[in-house]
Amino acid sequence: MDDSQSSSPVWPLVFIVFAVVGLFCGLDVFSRDPHKSPPYSDYTADSLLGAKWRWDWNVDGVTNLMCYCPECDMQLVEHCDIDESSNFICEHCNDKVVFSRKGPAGEAFNAATREILRRMRTEKLPQS
Ligand SMILES: [Zn+2]
Questions:
Q1: CA of 23 to the centre of ligand 1 (A)
Q2: Residue 100 Cα, ligand 1 centroid: separation in angstroms?
Q3: Is 127 within the bounds of a domain?
Q4: Within-domain flag for 36
Q5: What pLDDT digit, counting tens, does each position of 54-94 carry?
Q6: Contact, 99 vs 51, CB < 8 A?
Q7: Is 40 domain-assigned?
């Protein structure tokens, strides 16, 4: 019992430290929009690979990435060729091939994501 009483003056100090840390963390949580927390969160559209791209941000980075026709804004459809390249077609523009990419369709999305992140790193973002 003597040991616990001799250490008791430390507890108010620990409590105060945790209270202060908790207060600052709490204020930080309230001031932060979880959907806007990543950097460049306003950067959600750009022209890449010959198409228009739009996306959202989450804690992992780029999400909901989609590509659109630069002329009519129709969402593009992916078609894979026999030679294993992917064509991104606008159905509204008479199945016009907007852009092609070697490899499966997912590679185009990976390439677009890499380019978005590269532009973020180099801060070569489009002027809004
Ligand atoms: Zn189109």
A1: 52
A2: 15
A3: no
A4: no
A5: 999 988 899 999 999 999 999 999 988 777 889 999 999 99
A6: yes
A7: no
87 in a structural domain: yes
CB 55 within 8 A of CB 43: no
Q: Which domain holds residue 112?
A: 45-122
17, 76: one domain? no
- Count CB-CB contacts under 10 A for residue 76: 26
Residues 19 and 61 occupy one common structural domain: no
53 C-alpha to ligand 1 centroid (Å) = 13
Dihedral of the alpha carbons of 9, 10, 12, 17, in degrees to the nearest 10: 160
Overall pTM surpassing 0.70 (yes/no): no
> How many Cα atoms are found within 13 Å in the side-chain-facing hemisphere of 106?
0
User: What is the strand order of the sheet 77-80 is part of?
Assistant: 77-80, 85-90, 96-102
The rounded Å distance from CA 66 to ligand 1 centre is 14
89 Cα–ligand 1 center, Å: 8
